[in-house]
Every structure is written in structure tokens, then in C-alpha cells.
């Protein structure tokens, strides 16, 4: 068996296509994507590529958003994004391959240091294949050339920031999962997420990008959907358990809890709690009540 056995499987499948091709892979490198497009016969006029673009993953080098440019140049291909994608699936008309291999050099065996991967032949009519393909209908966002450029720009900024969170790849130590908001002005989050950050100073911008990396929200959302996603992430924070459970949270208690972890000074804990309060005020229906140590309470304040 050759080192490029997986690539030969993909090449044979796609070369047999006569009507349409679907490529489903979280990680796609541009060199392999171009080779894949070249493999599809000229008579096939519809190529759908479903992948995911994360700023942190692009910064880590595991995926190239520039495939959008290659798709546009080819003229037959459309790139769609599904942020929670993990499946790997390659379809040519009524036949497909399912398994573990992304469209990268190591996964397909197109480089010498190849991964151990598996692709198995299946029929597109298989219920599980149909279930996965159905999920993509109405849940993906377009992977445009403009969005690709935005993702790449932010990935480059993240690479320049030594404090930015890193994607876990084999050989790296596990990163801490604990996160508290850093950005003092939460209204900046969507601006940066949407690529409008050129009036923001470099230090502040780095903090916003770190928060966005921890939030891990898929690209291409409108502002309302983005706010909903941020709020869901906030409500999952253990520091906000009292607020979500009882509808109120004492800021003094929250500050004391952070100090008790040994990870924060009193000043750092106060700043962290104030930042959390600012995020909640911006993204949620809460208000501050000055009773003893201030409280955050669910619901809009009645006048």
C-alpha cells in the first residue's frame, strides 16, 4: 500500500463523477484543494465544498481560507462554512467515501510524513450520509473571498500576539480552558469579528482577538446572532452560576470567589468582575442594583 493510498481513493472517486461533487472536511489546505479541483472532470459543473474556518486554526496553519480564491477561479466550486464540522465525506454522484481524512497533505498522503487515515466506500443513500448532508441545508454560511481575507488578517494578528490562545495540535501541551472576558468595551467585539478594527489600537485589538478566540464563534453571523452566541457562552461560565440559578449575583461575592482561587489579586478580581458586568449589561437583560455590594439582577430595570 502506497503512502498516498488515501489520495488515490479520493482521486479515483472524484474522477468518476459526471454530475456533482461534494467535499466535506474541517481542514483543507490550498495545495490539496487545487489538486482536488483538477481531479474533477471538466463536465462536472457543480462542486460544493463544506469546511470550517476558525481564526485560531488558520493561525495554527491547519487550514487555508484562501481556498475561496481557488474556488472562485475554478468557477464550478462553492465554499460553505459549518463551524461545528468534524465529519469527513467525499461525494461523487451516488457514491462516496467516509472516514477520517481531511484535505491536507498529511491526511491524504501527498507528503512523506503522512497520517494514518481511513476512508471507506459507501452509498450516498445511506441514512447516516443523508442525515449529515441534510444538516448542512440552511445551517451553513458562504465562505466568500472577502471573509477569507478577513479571517487571514485576524489569524496573522493572532500569530503576532504571544498571549493569544493556541489551537491544540499533537505535541502541544494542553491549554487551560478557564476564560474570563478581557475586553472592557464589549461593543468592540462585533466590530472586530466583522473586520472593522482599523481604528482600534494594537494592544486593545489584541485583547479583543483573544476574547474572540476563546468565544470560538463561527464566522459570518449577523450582529443579533453573534450577540446570542456570546450570551450563551457567558451563561455557561461557572462564575455566573449564581446569576443563572437565582437571577442575581453579588459582585462582592464574585470578586471574593476569584481572589480565593489564588489566581487573582483583589484589584485583578475587581476588574474581572466589572468587565463581566459590562458584558452582561451589553449582551443580556440585566441591571445593576446598589444594595450593599452591588448586585447584577436579571431583567430590565423598571423606571
CATH homologous superfamily label of the largest domain: Endonuclease Chain A
Span of the ends, CA to CA: 75 Å
Name the strands of the widest sheet in spatial order. 6-5-4-1-2-3-7
How do the SSEs run, as a string of H and E? HEHEHHEEEHEHEHHHHHEHHEE
**Can you tell me the residue ranges where pLDDT is under 50 for at least 5 consecutive residues?**
168-176
What is the molecular shape? elongated
CATH secondary-structure class of the largest domain = Alpha Beta
Fraction of residues in helix = 40-55%
Please give the count of helices: 13
Oligomer: single chain
Q: Return the average pLDDT rounded to an integer.
A: 88
Biggest pleated-sheet summary = 7 strands, mixed
GO molecular function, one term: catalytic activity
Pfam family, one: PLDc_2
Organism: Kitasatospora xanthocidica
Domain PLD phosphodiesterase: 85-107
Structure, explained:
The protein is α+β, with helices and mostly antiparallel strands. It has 2 domains: 5-147, Endonuclease Chain A (Endonuclease, Chain A); 178-298, no CATH class. 43% of the residues lie in helices and 15% in strands. It is built from 13 helices and 10 strands. Strands 6-5-4-1-2-3-7 form a 7-stranded mixed sheet, with helices on one face. A hairpin with a 2-residue loop joins strand 4 (88-92) and strand 5. It starts with a helix and ends in a 5-residue tail after the last strand. Mean pLDDT is 88; it is low at 168-176.
In short:
InterPro entries: PLD-like_cat (IPR059166), PLD-like_dom (IPR025202), PLipase_D/transphosphatidylase (IPR001736). This protein has helices at residues 5-15, 30-39, 55-60, 67-74, 105-108, 127-136, 145-159, 188-193, 202-215, 223-235, 241-246, 251-260, 266-283, and strands spanning 20-24, 46-51, 77-81, 88-92, 95-99, 119-123, 141-142, 248-250, 286-289, 295-298.
Amino acid at each position: 500500500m502506497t503512502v498516498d493510498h488515501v489520495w488515490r481513493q479520493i482521486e479515483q472517486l472524484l474522477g468518476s463523477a459526471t454530475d456533482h461533487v461534494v467535499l466535506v472536511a474541517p481542514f483543507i489546505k490550498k495545495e490539496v484543494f487545487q489538486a482536488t479541483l483538477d481531479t474533477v472532470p471538466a463536465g462536472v459543473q457543480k462542486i460544493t465544498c463544506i469546511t470550517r474556518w476558525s481564526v485560531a486554526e488558520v493561525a495554527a496553519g491547519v487550514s487555508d481560507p484562501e481556498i475561496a480564491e481557488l474556488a472562485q477561479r475554478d468557477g464550478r466550486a462553492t465554499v460553505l462554512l459549518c463551524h461545528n464540522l468534524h465529519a469527513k465525506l467525499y461525494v461523487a454522484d451516488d457514491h462516496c467515501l467516509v472516514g477520517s481524512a481531511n484535505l491536507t497533505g498529511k491526511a491524504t498522503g501527498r507528503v512523506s510524513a503522512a497520517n494514518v487515515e481511513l476512508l471507506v466506500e459507501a452509498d450516498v443513500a445511506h441514512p447516516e450520509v443523508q442525515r449529515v448532508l441534510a444538516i448542512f441545508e440552511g445551517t451553513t454560511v458562504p465562505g466568500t473571498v472577502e471573509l477569507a481575507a478577513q479571517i487571514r488578517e485576524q489569524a496573522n494578528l493572532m500569530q503576532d500576539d504571544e498571549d493569544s490562545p493556541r489551537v491544540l495540535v499533537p505535541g502541544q501541551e494542553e491549554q487551560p480552558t478557564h476564560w474570563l472576558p478581557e475586553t472592557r468595551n464589549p461593543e468592540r467585539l462585533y466590530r472586530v469579528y466583522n473586520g472593522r478594527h482599523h481604528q482600534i489600537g494594537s494592544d486593545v485589538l489584541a485583547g479583543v482577538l483573544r476574547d474572540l478566540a476563546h468565544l470560538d464563534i463561527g464566522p459570518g453571523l449577523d450582529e443579533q446572532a453573534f450577540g446570542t452566541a456570546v450570551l450563551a457562552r457567558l451563561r455557561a461560565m461557572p462564575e455566573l452560576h449564581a446569576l443563572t440559578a437565582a437571577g442575581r449575583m453579588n459582585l462582592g461575592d464574585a470578586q471574593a470567589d476569584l481572589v480565593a482561587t489564588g489566581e487573582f489579586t483583589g484589584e485583578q478580581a475587581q476588574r474581572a468582575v466589572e468587565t463581566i458586568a459590562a458584558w452582561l449589561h451589553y449582551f443580556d437583560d440585566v441591571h445593576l442594583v446598589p444594595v450593599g455590594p452591588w448586585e447584577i439582577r436579571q431583567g430590565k430595570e423598571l423606571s
